[in-house]
Task: inverse folding
């Protein structure tokens, strides 16, 4: 049966197809990786755009870079369901936020949906609008409403309902409305630990849903780096990745990280879908 959020990938080697049968859960197949990025180019870019009247942050630039990366490297947007490999129909990024930074502040989850053709400014607008709406105490997200509906049931019914939802997902019977509301059915889960001045972590993947990539951006720190054969201290971003190794091979992941570095070194590339023209303009 077809899924509303993706299509089955059929043209794969037998060895690739058998891996999800061997490692049935994402928690079986999760790999961990760390990326260190010099923040100089990002800081200069944010300052440059501020002088031009744009209010951008690390959150905007990092999510824009990941959206562009997934658009360019579509195997990253695959997911495993019932030991089958699917290609996702769109690009989604889920993120947990607190309505206030007090200890007792309520937490909710937002999900940004993209086509992959948006530029940085369009992505920033989408992010700001959805977060502003979600932080309003008068507003409930689709996730809030879904969770409230489940939790309104008696205890034994809650457990039964969750099992039914998981089983329906495995059988490709989960309604589109539930998939759209679920933060666990997404291309990537992003946690912005920099906003609470906390170090990066390696977050586990969820066995429920379809998330195969978890990204945790920590606070900026000063680290020694080698530049022109000299050791210098630089302000850096540290990012922790947890990846479902079943969605693509190591070479594909490695080349994807190299492309990601290009976007962090030159955020101007994210201003247009036509990267080659942007690259020429930046050089000139």
Result:
């Amino acid at each position: 049966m077809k899924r509303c959020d993706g299509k089955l990938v059929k043209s794969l080697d037998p060895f690739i197809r058998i891996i999800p049968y061997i490692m049935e859960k994402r928690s079986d197949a999760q790999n961990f990786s760390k990326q260190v990025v010099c923040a100089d180019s990002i800081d200069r870019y944010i300052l440059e755009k501020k002088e031009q009247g744009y209010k951008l942050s690390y959150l905007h630039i990092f999510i824009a870079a990941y959206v562009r990366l997934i658009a360019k490297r579509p195997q990253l947007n695959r997911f495993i369901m019932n030991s089958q490999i699917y290609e996702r129909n769109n690009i989604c990024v889920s993120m947990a936020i607190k309505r206030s930074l007090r200890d007792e502040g309520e937490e909710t989850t937002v999900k940004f949906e993209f086509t992959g053709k948006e530029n940085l400014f369009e992505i920033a607008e989408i992010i700001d609008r959805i977060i502003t709406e979600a932080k309003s105490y008068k507003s409930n997200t689709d996730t809030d409403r879904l969770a409230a509906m489940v939790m309104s049931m008696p205890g034994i019914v809650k457990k039964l309902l969750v099992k039914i939802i998981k089983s329906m997902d495995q059988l490709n019977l989960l309604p589109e409305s539930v998939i759209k509301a679920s933060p666990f059915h997404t291309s990537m889960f992003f946690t912005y630990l920099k906003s609470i001045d906390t170090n990066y972590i390696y977050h586990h993947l969820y066995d429920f849903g379809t998330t195969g990539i978890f990204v945790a951006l920590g606070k900026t720190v000063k680290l020694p780096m080698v530049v022109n054969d000299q050791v210098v201290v630089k302000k850096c971003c540290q990012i922790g990745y947890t990846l479902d190794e079943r969605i693509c091979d190591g070479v594909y992941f490695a080349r994807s990280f190299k492309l990601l570095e290009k976007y962090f070194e030159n955020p101007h590339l994210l201003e247009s879908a036509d990267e080659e023209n942007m690259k020429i303009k930046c050089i000139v």
Q: What stands out?
A: The two ends are 52 Å apart (CA to CA). The beta strands are 6-8, 30-38, 78-81, 84-88, 91-98, 107-114, 188-192, 213-217, 221-227, 230-244.
